[in-house]
Amino acid sequence: MLASLTACNSTYEKPKMAVGNIKQTHLLTTYQPFKAYFEQFSLTTEQIAKVKAWPNNISFAVYFGTWCPDSQREVPKLLKALTVNRQLHADLIALDMHKSDPNNLAKKANIKFTATFVVLKAGKEIGRVVERPKNNLIDDIDAIIQSNSASIAVDG
Predict the structure, then answer these.
(1) Domain locations in the chain?
(2) How far is residue 153 CA from its own chain's centroid?
């Protein structure tokens, strides 16, 4: 019995905590909770329409922890949304438990909680969703984008 337990332990190795910039493919293939949430999540017809309407100059800086349950739940939702509008891009920055990364990006962005989704328009921050969305991640991001678009679309 002990031999079989030892064999089980030696065949499964929990992945190390990611820290720093990480590619989506690596995140989804290495960290099972992210993969599971990505596969389970589906956008509503209304959310798909919203994401398709997001301007191409929108991008995201996503600060998260591979160890963080909020990150494991929310980050895959944005990644799934980006499959609907492939013109959009997200930089994924994995943080350690002290909310830091090797390039000090989290410090520069004043990140206090994971996950933090920084919404950028033409490279400038227009808003962020921190830790837990008020409604849901897609609708909260859409509200940020719409409120920013409304303030720019003034009488010609």
Answers:
(1) 18-152
(2) 28
